[in-house]
Design brief:
It is a single chain. The chain has about 300 residues and is α/β, with parallel strands linked by helices. The longest helix is centred in the N-terminal third of the chain and has 18 residues. Bound molecules: 3-methyl-2-oxobutanoic acid (KIV).
Length: about 300
């Protein structure tokens, strides 16, 4: 899927075709007056078709209906209710304290805000490691109680049996390889993974094993771009990169990072599209000043 300048032109055409087929950026944003109820839903089949046709899709995390709705209306294809909620919303240092009930709660909220995107719920630490049976039941709860259309779980070979059980029962599973934050204490830090030949080969084997087990997509986090491109080329199912270069079939970011809301977290894989923290600060300071000065509310803002 790597593209030369000449290829880029071809890919643009494919993107345009997809916009017609699946609603399109203009229709999604309402810029052309498109009816949002005409939007097609993003399904596992749509994502696989996008991969086959070289149409790169975009994913963001969300944890509530408010942001999920904005992202859905902006045309984001997959909304991930990530266990990153532990770091970015709950204020924990890691994702480990997040519970299944908390992910169900956030998934329910996200579900209410979304019409078009696929909603994927993360399986938090210890919700799938104890036994295949427990993992299976917990994945079912994320779908039944949370309204998720798919679940995501971290790990390769060790989760293959669990993934097979889920997919056999109709639960779509997204894999997650490379830097898997639930293993942070085992890794001893957030360094990139897959840099050694052995680790790179293991990631490739794990990716193929997850595909064989029926996973419909795999997140590749913080691994060398060449390795991610090789894994993407070796699989029929789409890969979704975060810190894994441009050779993946789609990209995902934690929304608070790309909007400039997160404090003190600037890894090089995050592109900050706005600085909402600064802008919110400015707006709130303006409000506070107006209240203090008696400039808010005005007569027009009063009854
Ligand atoms: O929890 C999360 O937000 C994630 C993404 C970073 C892929 O797993």
């Amino acid at each position: 899927m790597a593209s030369t300048d000449a290829d880029a032109g071809v890919e643009m055409d494919q993107n345009d075709q997809h916009d017609q087929l699946y609603g399109g950026a203009a229709a999604r944003s309402g810029a052309d007056g498109g009816n949002k109820h005409d939007y097609r839903r993003i399904t596992t089949r749509v994502l696989q078709k996008m991969k086959r046709e070289g149409y790169r899709f975009a994913s963001l995390t969300a944890y509530d209906a408010l942001f999920a709705r904005i992202f859905d209306e902006a045309g984001i294809d997959i909304i991930l209710v990530g266990d990153s909620v532990g770091n970015v919303i709950q204020g924990h240092e890691t994702t480990l304290p997040v519970t299944l009930d908390e992910i169900i709660y956030h998934t329910r909220a996200v579900r209410r805000g979304v019409q078009r995107a696929m909603v994927v719920a993360d399986m938090p630490f210890m919700s799938f490691q104890v036994s295949t049976n427990e993992a299976f039941r917990n994945a079912g709860r994320l779908m039944k109680e949370g309204g998720a259309e798919a679940v995501k779980l971290e790990g390769g070979k060790r989760v293959v049996k669990t993934v097979r059980r889920m997919t056999a029962a109709g639960i779509p599973v997204m894999g997650h390889l490379g830097l898997t934050p639930q293993s942070i204490h085992q890794f001893g830090g957030y360094q990139a993974r897959g840099r050694s030949k052995e680790e790179a080969e293991q990631i490739m084997r794990d990716a193929k094993a997850l595909e064989d087990a029926g996973a419909f997509a795999i997140v590749l986090e913080k691994i060398p771009a060449q390795l991610a491109a090789d894994v993407s080329a070796a699989l029929k199912i789409p890969t979704i990169g975060i810190g894994a270069g441009a050779g993946c079939d789609g990209q995902v970011l934690v929304f608070t990072d790309m909007l400039g809301l997160t404090v003190d977290f600037n890894p090089r894989f995050v592109r900050q599209y706005d600085n909402l923290r600064e802008r919110i600060n400015g707006a709130v300071a303006g409000y506070r000043g107006d209240v203090r000065d008696g400039a808010f509310p005005s007569q027009e803002e009063s009854y």
